[in-house]
Amino acid sequence: MSKISIRFYKDHKVRAVWDEANNQWWFSVLDIVGAINQQDDHEKNRNYWKYLKAKLRKEDNELVSATTQLKLTAADGKKYKTDVISQIDVEKLAKVIPNNQATAFLDWFTYSDNTIDGRSKKKAYTFIESNLVADKAWEHYHINYNVVQNNSIICKHLQTSEKQANLKI
Question: Which residues are registered as beta bridge partners of 61?
């Protein structure tokens, strides 16, 4: 475990650790619970997760078995073992928490500028705003504009022909 990431959702931190062996991020369950419930109290988040974990265990939900424990740095600067889950399991966790904020959290988690997709989108917009892409886009627009003009002319010609045909009848 070498990389550590801290992301913020509405001023609530969500800690993550990169696992080289499995090539994936592991996210702190307590941080996710706190972010979704907008709760800063560590004890309340821990109790909520304890209750939810027991409920999911009774339902034989696979999310509980997907959790593992890793040492993460706490607010006091010490490292403690805490439950962590993978990115796919974060989505599952957000779906089982009965809270309106879970959907907003999930949207942020999967589509924010901090995700790979978000960073790629940001780079794409930067690239589009460059002159190289702007010149190509203008050429495309100009060609399409001419086609639209020609279609309009054809449509006007057809409308004129119909009017002439109606007058002859």
Answer: none
Q: Determine the Cα–Cα distance for residues 13 and 5; give it in Å rounded to an integer.
A: 10
Return the bridge partners of 73, or none. Answer: 79
pLDDT at residue 30 in the model: 93
Contact 83, 33 (CB under 8 A): no
> Could you give the maximum distance between any two Cα atoms of the chain, in Å?
93
Phi, psi (5° rounding) for residue 71?
-85, 125
Contact present, 82 and 29 (Cβ < 8 Å): yes
Taken in order 87, 88, 89, 92, the sign of the CA dihedral is positive
Contact (Cβ atoms closer than 8 angstroms) between residue 37 and residue 101: yes
Q: Look at residue 146 and tell me whether its pLDDT is greater than 50.
A: no
- On whether the CB atoms of residues 77 and 48 are closer than 8 A, the answer is no
Closest by CA position to 63, among listed 76, 47, 52, 48: 52
Mean of the per-residue pLDDT values of the chain: 74
Q: Decide the pairing of beta strands 79-86 and 4-9.
A: unpaired
Answer whether residue 131 shows pLDDT above 60: no
Asked if 54 and 46 touch (Cβ cutoff 8 Å), the reply is no
Per the DSSP assignment, residues forming a β-bridge with 79 are 73
Q: What is the mean pLDDT of residues 11-34?
A: 89
